[in-house]
Structures are given as structure tokens and as C-alpha cells.
Design a protein that fits this description.
The chain has twelve helices and ten strands. The protein is an alpha/beta fold. The chain has a single domain, classed as Aldolase class I (TIM Barrel, Alpha-Beta Barrel), CATH 3.20.20.70. The strands form two sheets. An eight-stranded mixed β-sheet has the order 1-2-5-6-7-8-9-10, with helices on both faces. Strand 5, helix 5 and strand 6 form a beta-alpha-beta unit. Helix 4 runs parallel beside helix 5. The chain is globular and about 45 Å long.
């Protein structure tokens, strides 16, 4: 089976370590907070938490560590969701201040069991962070909220700086890769609504190595550009366990480089992070700030705009 192939050298990684890693982990545990970095066994955890020129990027996972959906690529556990913690928004904001982050990524499990899918809780966390420090840039990676526009609108009205929602794979492979409740068109509709109702940057992510064809990747990128998505990331799918989808192919780094050039130079995305180890929130703060500069904005202008929105 494809999943039993030996991983190529370019997929080898070092386990996370160091004082900064230990400090962040301790802060999270003290406040009973979860990160998708840990829950989804992200291969870049140590690198992102260490950062390049500052505190780095940590992706907080809201609303618990159990999901109402069962996507066949994801290592987050399904079922057994607990009631929302009303203190979580404030706890996240306090953790952000203690760690010293100036760029925050928030994501969540799917909570289809809740009347609003957890949209209000998500929005309140954004607001709490901005209340603590309006200059902090906030990126949110949101569920599809079953395509309900009002729930997506709650996120928009909380005014994060980037709204991401992942299409995950090409249209043909949505099932069996994703839960049947997630569809390609539904995901596109979420991203399209954000652009229609705001000037917030939009972002999405694709996994490669699931059996997609090159023309399908190109079509997906074209579909995303047509609805004005700003940022796209591409990474290698890695099988979390024997019960998850097999890896169809280990895509060579040169192919990822090619897709990055196509996305940025040919299709005109603001930026594309593309590589075997790239994940949706990979170095999100560093790459976004670099992209702002290329887009003719300074970091201080972006932070001033974020503060003014409050």
C-alpha cells in the first residue's frame, strides 16, 4: 500500500524542543487551552513556536479537542464534545499576552451540535484578543458553519485581519477526504461571502498526495482566484494513523515550488506557501507580514488599521 512506503528524506523532521517551546506549552496547559499544532500532530510545531524574529506563531484550537465531524485525513478525535467553556475567550487573550504574540491564529473543531456552530464563541475570542491589544493581528481558520451566512457573518463582524477556510483537496476528492457534510461549493461560498461583505484578507489550503491530478490542482487554484482568495498554502498529506486515508503519492519539493510560482506569478495570489511540510498556519505571521510589504503596506500600517477598526 502507498502508505507503507518509506518516507523520502525531505519529509524528515526534528522533534520540537527548546526553552520557548516549553514555555508556550506550560502557558497553554495552565489555562487548559488546546492548539491544533499539538492535536493534529503538526510537523512544524517546534519551528513555528520558535519564530524567526519574535515569538512565532501558535494556532489556538477553540471549543474543545473533539470534533463533530469525521474527516478521513484528520487526527482530531470525533464525538464526545463537551459544553463550551465561557472563560475560553478571555483565557486565550491572556495566554496571547503572556506568550507575547503579535500575530495570533485561531481555529476550532467543527461543532455542528451547537445551534450557531460556535460562531458567537469564535467571534468573542477575536474581540477579547483585540480588546487586550488592538494592534495584534488575528487570523482565523473557521469551519464552514454548514454554509449558514449569518454564522459566517458573525466572524466577519468581529473584524479579524485574515479569515481562512480550507477546501482541503480538489473537487473530485472532497469525499472520501472530508466528512460528507463538507462540500467544495460550500467551502467556496464561505470564502466568497467574506470577500463580498468585507475587505478582510482570505486564505485557504490544499493537501497534495491524495491522488489529485495536476489539472485539478490548477482548476482549484483558478476557482479560488476567481472568488478573490488572497492567500493559498499547499502541503503534503501525511497519514496520521493506519485508520486514515493512505498516502497516494509523496510529491517532490520541486513540484511544490512549481505550484508556488504558478499561484503567485501566473494567477496572482498575494502569496502562496508551498512545500511538503507546509500546513495551513505554517509561519502564518511571518508570511503574512512579508506579503503586506509586497502589497505596499507596512507592518505598522497594518497594525494601526487593526487598532483603528476597534
Amino acid at each position: 500500500m502507498a502508505s507503507r512506503r518509506r518516507k523520502p528524506d525531505w519529509l524528515k523532521m526534528r522533534p520540537p524542543s527548546g526553552q520557548r517551546f516549553t514555555e508556550i506549552k506550560s502557558t497553554l496547559r495552565d489555562r487548559n487551552l488546546h492548539t491544533v499544532c499539538e492535536e493534529a500532530n503538526c510537523p512544524n510545531l517546534g519551528e513555528c513556536w520558535s519564530g524567526r524574529d519574535g515569538p512565532g506563531t501558535a494556532t489556538f484550537m477553540l471549543m474543545g479537542d473533539r470534533c463533530s465531524r469525521g474527516c478521513n485525513f484528520c487526527d482530531v478525535q470525533t464525538g464526545g464534545m463537551e459544553p463550551l467553556d465561557p472563560n475560553e475567550p478571555a483565557n486565550v487573550a491572556e495566554a496571547v499576552a503572556e506568550i507575547g504574540l503579535d500575530y495570533v491564529v485561531l481555529t476550532s473543531v467543527d461543532r455542528d451540535d451547537l445551534a450557531d456552530g460556535g460562531a458567537a464563541h469564535f467571534a468573542e475570542t477575536i474581540r477579547e484578543i483585540k480588546r487586550c491589544d488592538p494592534s495584534i493581528l488575528v487570523e482565523v481558520l473557521i469551519p464552514d458553519f454548514q454554509g449558514e451566512p449569518e454564522q459566517v457573518r458573525q466572524i466577519i463582524e468581529a473584524e479579524p485581519d485574515v479569515i481562512a477556510h480550507n477546501v482541503e483537496t480538489v473537487e473530485r476528492l472532497q469525499w472520501p477526504v472530508r466528512d460528507r457534510r463538507a462540500t467544495y461549493e460550500q467551502s467556496l461560498s464561505v470564502l466568497k461571502q467574506v470577500k463580498r461583505e468585507s475587505d478582510i484578507y482570505t486564505k485557504t489550503s490544499l493537501m497534495l498526495g491524495l491522488g489529485e491530478y495536476a489539472h485539478e490542482i490548477y482548476q482549484t487554484l483558478s476557482d479560488l482566484k476567481e472568488i478573490d482568495v488572497d492567500i493559498v498554502t499547499l502541503g503534503q498529506y501525511l497519514q496520521p494513523s493506519a485508520s486514515h486515508l493512505d498516502v497516494f503519492e509523496y510529491v517532490h519539493p520541486d513540484a511544490f515550488d512549481t505550484w508556488e510560482r504558478i499561484a503567485e506569478d501566473e494567477l496572482g495570489f498575494l502569496y502562496c506557501a508551498s512545500g511538503p511540510m507546509v500546513r495551513s498556519s505554517y509561519k502564518a505571521g511571518e508570511l503574512f507580514v512579508d506579503a503586506l510589504v509586497r502589497d505596499g503596506k507596512t507592518v505598522s500600517e497594518a497594525r494601526a488599521a487593526a487598532a483603528a477598526a476597534e
